[in-house]
Design a protein that fits this description.
Bound molecules: heme C
Shape: globular
Number of strands: 0
Helix content: 40-55%
CATH topology: Cytochrome Bc1 Complex, Chain D, domain 2
Structural class: mainly alpha
Strand content: under 5%
CATH architecture: Orthogonal Bundle
Oligomer: single chain
Low-confidence stretches: none
CATH superfamily: Cytochrome c-like domain
Distance between the termini: 61 Å
CATH class: Mainly Alpha
Length: about 130
């Protein structure tokens, strides 16, 4: 391949690559199928701060029965103002969005967790959490 062609190709990749990347949005939650066993492994990242036992709060609130629960309502857990007043219901859809980037979903949250960028991992951990109700 000529140098010129190579140059044109890489310029093309730069010009057209960026919009293609920008369009690679996360798939809709409904299109994913979560696997609870895989989710248990993903939950290892949460376990430093959360357990799924009812009424057991650690650094973060108990995640027992989290699906369908209103945000900021676990008894005995001292939430940040941000989480306290977020006023969302933890539907699977909302968890899917929250867990991608918690600080973007609830600006000011004290949950020190960068997020799960992998959509399948989010679906898996949600499938895992669904079991504790
Ligand atoms: C470093 C500790 C830490 C890690 C790791 C962590 N969390 Fe949290 N999480 C918290 C804290 C602290 C809060 C309360 C935040 C606040 O009050 O702003 C919280 C809040 C939450 C809430 C909102 C609960 C409610 O009752 O409104 C959910 C849901 C949640 N975490 C899920 C997860 C999941 C799932 C993971 C793993 C993928 C995870 N967290 C990882 C510390 C953590």
């Amino acid at each position: 391949m000529s140098r010129f062609l190579k140059l044109m190709l890489s310029a093309g990749a730069l010009a057209f690559g960026a919009p293609v990347l920008a369009q690679a949005a996360a798939p809709a939650y409904a299109t994913l199928k979560g696997n609870p066993a895989a989710g248990q492994k993903v939950f290892a990242q949460c376990r430093a701060c959360h357990v799924t036992d009812k009424g057991v709060n650690r650094v973060g609130p108990s995640l027992h029965g989290v699906i369908g629960r209103k945000s900021g309502t676990v008894p005995g857990f001292k939430y940040s103002k941000a989480n306290q007043s977020a006023n969302v219901v933890w539907t699977e859809e909302n968890l899917y969005r929250y867990l991608e980037n918690p600080r973007k979903f609830i600006p000011g949250t004290t949950m020190a967790f960068a997020g799960l960028r992998n959509p399948q991992q989010r679906a898996d951990v949600i499938a895992y959490l669904r079991q504790f109700k």
